[in-house]
Design goal:
The chain is of the alpha+beta class and 213 residues long. The chain is 29% helix and 21% strand. It starts with a helix and ends with a helix.
């Protein structure tokens, strides 16, 4: 029993599945920040969110948006896992506001549907698209995962997270809007599978019978 307890206490605190609170001391981009946990700097990656890279259009605006929400404030961190870069992937709340959702609602980040099937976040992104908020004011905003692949073709992305969540989609045999069950699925096939026939008018919104109210 004492050995088990000792091993438990040696685990890095952010990996333990409980919320913690810390002051945000740095904003790196629109989906990455650093908070202090008991004096230790922990780099955090917003779960289910992919913000434009800093050199992309709206990259700096996305960083500024996250800074306005969290910098210098105390945040509640709900950790989920570590990614391949050692960051803690988490849901973050600043001032009681769900920052992951707010970045998407403002049009400052994409819903990272490769690693998330949160229908609420899908709906927030669809609303931001329709209202042309933030990055959606551009006619054809480039997804950050495509930008990273274009900048470094050998990297295959790279995906910011280290593993695929259970139940996430793969490119299958579907080809038509009539085969799509949800707007999120249609968006996935458009963005990740390159099925541009789903976006007949080229406005970035596929299968408008699903994705427009």
């Amino acid at each position: 029993m004492h050995i088990v307890l000792a091993l438990f206490l040696l685990l890095p605190l952010p990996l333990l599945a409980y919320p913690w609170t810390g002051k945000v001391v740095a904003i790196h981009d629109g989906d990455t920040l650093t908070a202090l946990q008991r004096g230790r700097a922990i780099r955090l990656r917003l779960n289910a969110v992919d913000a434009p890279e800093l050199h992309q259009p709206y990259g700096q605006q996305s960083r500024t948006s996250l800074s306005s929400l969290c910098y210098g404030r105390y945040a509640t961190i709900e950790p989920e896992e570590r990614d391949k870069y050692g960051r803690v992937v988490a849901r973050v709340k600043c001032g009681g506001l769900d920052v992951n959702a707010e970045q998407i609602r403002r049009g400052m980040a994409w819903h990272y549907i490769k690693y998330s099937q949160n229908t609420g976040l899908e709906q927030l992104e669809t609303e931001a698209r329709q209202r042309k908020r933030g990055l959606w004011s551009s006619s054809h905003p480039e997804p950050p995962w495509e930008y990273r692949h274009r900048e470094d073709p050998g990297s295959q992305g790279p995906p910011k997270l280290s593993r695929r969540l259970p139940g996430s989609r793969h490119c299958g045999t579907k080809r038509y809007c009539s085969q799509m069950e949800t707007c999120g699925e249609a968006i996935y096939y458009l963005r990740r599978c390159g099925l541009h026939t789903l976006d007949g008018n080229g406005d970035g919104i596929p299968c408008e019978s699903l994705c427009r109210p």
